[in-house]
């Protein structure tokens, strides 16, 4: 077992990853509560937006902030367009149908990225988002600004979204739609507008997550597309309901994943972290439900 010194950098990177997973998970939870759709294309739209940003910055020489804005706008526009075109048709379909539909969008975007941003032999280019990644030193530990922004964004999005859902009319409408869409519509709530806001917000968060993960992990289509699994695991642990629990689960997934890296016997299994934690959490929650039901029957 390595000494604590070896683990310290991975605590920092794990917290940063957890923060990005948290803001992604919050986006997934809000969209699910408003529309009932599990948006599996979240990682793909962020990945493609980040690749578009990189291409603009590298090939046209535009300022970095222009590329980053294009990434966020692209992810938001694609997600909003998908929601407005297919959302009404999916509203009354089974949850499995809704999830598979967004998986189709994932495959389409992934195919486009594979076509446009791969080199000969099918190997992905070794590319990184060109950012000024300075930082500061804590003791002997180097912390860069992307890591700070990753954790800070996760905390900020969790707090702001919680307040938004509780204290604003639009947030109240989203919570009402999560309970019963039809009754909410009969009360005069503009359902399509509320759904549009949820789709757009989720897409914007996808673009932000794509940019941050491109700098924290790698700007690679496959890597960024499937990092949605960790965010989805955090949302599932929270049963796609609690934003606060989503944040806690996301931080736990990011920390455990990175803390396994210096342990040679376990490092090869670190990518299983979201699956294991989600499975354990769902088993525990299911057991509690069974026990409470048995007590009520007794």
Q: Could you explain the architecture of this structure?
A:
By secondary structure, this protein is an all-alpha fold. The protein has a domain at 15-124 and 149-225. The chain contains 13 helices and two strands; from the N terminus they run ααααββααααααααα. It has helices spanning 4-35, 42-60, 64-90, 95-116, 145-167, 169-179, 181-186, 191-216, 221-226, 228-237, 243-259, 264-267, 273-297; strands at 135-138, 141-144. The chain has a two-stranded antiparallel ribbon. A hairpin with a 2-residue loop joins strand 1 and strand 2 (141-144). Helix 2 (42-60) packs parallel to helix 4. The chain starts with a helix and ends with a helix.
Give the helices and strands, then pairings:
Blueprint: H1 4-35, H2 42-60, H3 64-90, H4 95-116, E1 135-138, E2 141-144, H5 145-167, H6 169-179, H7 181-186, H8 191-216, H9 221-226, H10 228-237, H11 243-259, H12 264-267, H13 273-297
Antiparallel strand pairs: 1-2
Keywords:
mainly alpha, 77% helix, 3% strand, 298 residues, two-stranded antiparallel ribbon
Shape: globular
Task: Kindly state the percentage of residues in helix.
Answer: over 70%
Instruction: State which percent range the strand residues make up.
Output: under 5%
Query: What is the H/E order?
Result: HHHHEEHHHHHHHHH
Quick recap:
This protein has 298 residues and is an all-alpha fold. It has helices at 4-35, 42-60, 64-90, 95-116, 145-167, 169-179, 181-186, 191-216, 221-226, 228-237, 243-259, 264-267, 273-297, and strands spanning 135-138, 141-144. It has a two-stranded antiparallel sheet.
């Amino acid at each position: 077992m390595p000494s604590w010194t070896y683990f310290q950098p991975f605590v920092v990177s794990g917290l940063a990853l957890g923060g990005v997973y948290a803001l992604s998970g919050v986006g997934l939870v809000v969209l699910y509560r408003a529309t009932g759709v599990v948006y599996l294309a979240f990682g793909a739209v962020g990945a493609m937006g980040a690749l578009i940003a990189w291409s603009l910055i590298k090939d046209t020489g535009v300022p970095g902030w222009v590329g980053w804005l294009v990434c966020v706008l692209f992810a938001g526009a694609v997600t909003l367009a998908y929601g407005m075109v297919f959302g009404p048709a999916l509203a009354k379909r089974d949850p499995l149908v809704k999830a598979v539909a967004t998986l189709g969008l994932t495959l389409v975007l992934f195919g486009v990225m594979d076509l446009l941003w791969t080199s000969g032999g099918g190997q992905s280019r070794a590319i990184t988002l060109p950012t000024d990644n300075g930082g500061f030193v804590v003791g002997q530990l180097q912390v860069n600004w992307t890591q700070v922004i990753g954790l800070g964004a996760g905390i900020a999005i969790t707090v702001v979204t919680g307040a938004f859902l509780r204290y604003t009319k639009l947030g109240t409408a989203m919570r009402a739609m999560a309970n019963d869409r039809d009754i909410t519509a009969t009360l005069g709530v503009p359902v399509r507008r509320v759904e549009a806001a949820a789709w757009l917000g989720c897409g914007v968060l996808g673009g932000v997550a794509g940019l941050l993960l491109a700098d924290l992990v790698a700007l690679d289509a496959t890597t960024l597309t499937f990092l949605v699994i960790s965010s989805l695991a955090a949302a599932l642990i929270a049963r796609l309901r609690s934003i606060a629990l989503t944040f806690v689960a996301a931080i736990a997934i990011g920390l455990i994943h990175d803390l396994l890296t210096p342990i040679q016997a376990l490092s090869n299994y670190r990518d299983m972290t979201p699956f294991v934690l989600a499975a354990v959490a769902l088993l525990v929650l299911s057991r509690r439900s069974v026990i409470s039901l048995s007590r009520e029957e007794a």
